[in-house]
Amino acid sequence: MLDVIIALIPVFVWAIYIFGVRVITLTSLSVVSCILFEYLFQKLNHREITIGDFSAVLSGVLLAFNLPVSAPLWLCVIGAFFAIVVVKQLFGGLGKNFVNPVLAARVFLFISFPHQMTTYVAPLTYPQPWKISVDITSSATLLSQLKSGVLPENISFANLFLGRIG
């Protein structure tokens, strides 16, 4: 698990560059919540404490990477609870769950809180408390337009690569 966490460090640094320091807050809270929920569940159920295997840390990092940077902090805690307690620990712990805990938490959050999960911030704008987040719009994807050989004139490959166009 530690190797995967180390491999995700460049992604974390890039996310901070693209979305600002709120990425640090969101990721830290997610990791701490996952560790805390795993520890408390195992302690209350008299199970072996397994937070030393770093699986809760990895779940926290991946959960934070699956949330929009504009997500409220409480959403992160709810997602951590669902991933660790409901999906992972209730089915027996690491390796015994039938679905990926982080992706199950993402689906749960998406169904339960669709507005918070589909409100995105444009990259390199660094969200401030007084700024309004951009809501996503459904339309034909750029991949389907590229497949047909047509790329709108106001869209560049650089903006696609940097994530400025969805």
How would you describe this structure to a colleague?
This protein has helices spanning 2-7, 9-19, 22-44, 55-65, 73-89, 101-112, 114-117, 142-147, 157-162; strands at 119-120, 134-135. It is elongated. The protein is mostly helical and 166 residues long. Strands 1-2 form a two-stranded antiparallel ribbon. The protein has one domain (2-120). 58% of the residues lie in helices and 2% in strands. It contains 9 helices and 2 strands; from the N terminus they run αααααααββαα.
List the secondary-structure elements in sequence, H or E: HHHHHHHEEHH
Approximate helicity band: 55-70%
* Average pLDDT: 86
Question: What's the end-to-end separation, in Å?
Answer: 31 Å
What is the β-strand count? 2
Contiguous low-pLDDT stretches (5 residues minimum) are: none
Largest sheet: 2 strands, antiparallel
How many distinct folded domains? 1
The coarse overall form would be elongated
Strand content: under 5%
Task: List the total number of helices.
Answer: 9
Strand order of the largest sheet: 1-2
Look at the helices and sheets and give the structural class: mainly alpha
Radius of gyration: 18 Å
